[in-house]
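Reviewer 2 asked us to include a model.

Predict the structure of this chain.
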Amino acid sequence: MSDAAVLPSVGDADVEVARVALLSVHTSPLAQPGTGDGGGLNVYVRETARRMAARGVHVDVFTRWADASLPQRVTLEEGIEVHHIEAGPRKPLAKGEIANQLCSFLLALQRHPTAGSHDVLHAHYWLSGWVGRRLATRWNTPLVQTFHTLGVLKNANLAPGDAPESPLRLAAEHRVAHDADRLLVLTCGEARLLHSSYGISGSSLTVVPAGVDLSRFVPRPSAPSSADGPELLFAGRLQPLKGPDLAVRILAEVRRTVPNARLRIVGGTSGDGAGAMSPRDLRVLADELGVAGAVELEPAVDQQELVARYHAADVVLVPSRSETFGLVALEAQACGAPVVAAAVPGLEAVVGAGGTLVPGHDPRDHAAAVIRYLQDPELADRASRAGVATGRASSWDRTVDRLLQVYGEVAAASKVVEVCPG
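Predicted model (structure tokens):
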């Protein structure tokens, strides 16, 4: 018997999940989170792959070749291969343009040397699901799907300046949701949305929350202290959905009461750079609100640097207009930083006593919550300790335990179908 994960059995034979294919068409686990299309999905794929490989499962990650400087295959670490698939020009493309390259991606992957050698396909995002549902049939391999974000949710919570998702995406999500062998959702709220929007039964859904790297996102040694005044932090892509503009407006309201408060925004322009949330637009907004001197913008940073930003923040702002899973809020809590977040489903599932959930997106309401933490050190300390406890209960190892269980279940069901056709 190999070191691969041994999971549920069919009859007297163990079902061994030895090789897993992760489809991440539009963004690579090698990409820097917080820039372009890099975000929580990248972190999810990379961190789960690492932990599966540590348990003896070989992981192949398939992503579009979007960087001509990268080789066709990259060994992320032992047991994890990232394969760059030729589909369109070797440069970043907007998601709408990537949708036009899906047939090329599918055809190239069908010719790949590893084609059909995996026990399970796990597709991430709807673009990967479009490819995955076709590969699953051709390779006779069970398909597990995680959407990470849903078009119906985004369209129901459009931010100013944001374009609605295309009918193609909505139709593709519907088909993938019904055809996948199992849908993995990050929260119970996402499960309810799939049920109400697409009629997916509970038996097809499994909640598998994302996690946090507890070896990296560690509690800060002490509360932050700065002679320049308290610091608020926004970390994430600069897209309307995430609300960096709201963070600037929240700072302006906070400074009416705490005039030396500052805001640090860490992140890069989202997607292809289109939209109203460029760094220049945020600087113009800050100037209009009279807080330009108190706002610092910096590019996305690696995870070690991000930990330092969380440790230095008095409060972390997560004013997203929509969120499937609040990874930033979870990481901040693990580091002991109080969080003030919008009360949307993906954040309600993550933010507990380690922060405050604010109904709606009125900057004055968010500012009031921030001010309470800034003016009450005991309240901030209680939130810090509670957030650390939340983080400790949310490891990536727990996520992978659940993933491997699901992989075993769908692999076992696939074996039954093979033995008993029809």
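Confidence is low (pLDDT under 50) at residues 6-13, 272-276. The longest helix spans residues 396-419. We have added this to the supplementary material.
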